[in-house]
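Ticket #4471: structure output looks truncated?

Reporter: J.K.
Steps to reproduce: submitted the chain below (454 residues) through the standard prediction queue, then opened the result file.
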Amino acid sequence: MIEPLPLPASEDGPRLGVVPGAPHGIDALTGLVDRDHFLERAGAVLHSGGGLKAVILLDIDGLRRINQGLGSAAGDEVLEALAQRLMAASRKEDVVARVGGDEFAVLLAGLGEEDEARVLATRLAWAVEHEYSAMGHRLPLRVSMGVAVGPHDSRSAEKLLSDAEAAMYAAKSGGGDARVVVYSDSLREQSQRRFALEAALRRAVDNNAFELWYQPQVALSDRHVIATEALLRWQDENRGWLPPADFIPVAEDTGLIVPLGHWVIDRATAQLAEWIRKGYKLNMSINVSAKQLADPDFIFQVRDLLTRSGVPARSVTLEITESQVLRNLEITLPAMLTLRNFGVRLAIDDFGTGYASLTQLKTIPADELKLDRSFIVGLEHDPRDRGVVEGAVQLAHSLGLTVVAEGVETFAQLNFLTDIGCDALQGFLLGKPQPADEVSLSLSVDSGAATPLQ
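Returned output as attached by the reporter:
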């Protein structure tokens, strides 16, 4: 049974619940009004007097992971519990609705000024963004909210909800710094660009229109290449080369990261098998997301792909960012443990950006820690970065983890990392990401230059 942390009851008592055989206009799961009825109510309110009106659209971040990791029944109970919180935190005169699978809307009326809608939305976000208990697990829940205020230019209810949706997507792409976004005309253009990008990304996934490039990792013990990291590249026919930061968040939001991630592992392990046949002793690092780990089929897909390629499991390292591990620990931890039992190595990527506690680091079944490049950049001029990096290396070694420093671009950085006992380096100094047939797997690094071995 899923229960939110306690909240005071609304003024007029419970206003919702599961509604068996719910009447027309009522959502059977939550007891809230449905999308059609909400739009009818919103249309009537927009044409009445009484000040400004607004629509808040709320989207649950990560409900798919809960459904995949714990089952759809758990997801349904999360929806019920969130609906109860939303009703309890809203004003008596507000209309609260479930307008999509993981989307809720709130109609506000009688507003004195536009900023009042943003304040009320922020208050609702605080009310629902708390841990929920599900099957013995504590699940943090986060939301993205878009706000549209009207009536302006005779907006219809559908237009106001659409504007709120554009703002909601802006909040979602903004991450933790923008949980609530108010609609502006510029957001409409951003929303249209996003939908166009999503459509192009879907076509690219269907057509396998991607490439993998590889960046070497060099051991500091003997200055030889010990691994490569597989990095996704996409050249869209209309947009040209797109950086992963532009399309990976869209893949995450839409669930396309699951089939895309499967393709990456398939191609990367096949490439590693080819290099091993040529006599190279290498590992392959592959980035995965929490959504992939939450997919019930993911573990079996990894096992099958390893079997098909003939690559030893210990030659593959799956990297997941520190922030994603911590944000989804209840779901990702069981998958990580199972993968490690298969023999796959696990790495905590971008370490230092997610603020993992010592207790959490001891719990995570990792083999490797990758220092985020933001700390490496400051090694030459910031003593605080030097202290953080040296402390992280010592901490990782005390936990039995190897350490890879990302973003190494100068010999001053290389020398410092060598002195403090870092295990391996990755960065432009050692080699840029390149297609498989161009990457140098035999690399010598001395104090003056990084050159291929003859």
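Triage note (M.O.): checked the attachment and the full token line is present. The two ends are 64 Å apart (CA to CA).
Status: closed, working as intended.
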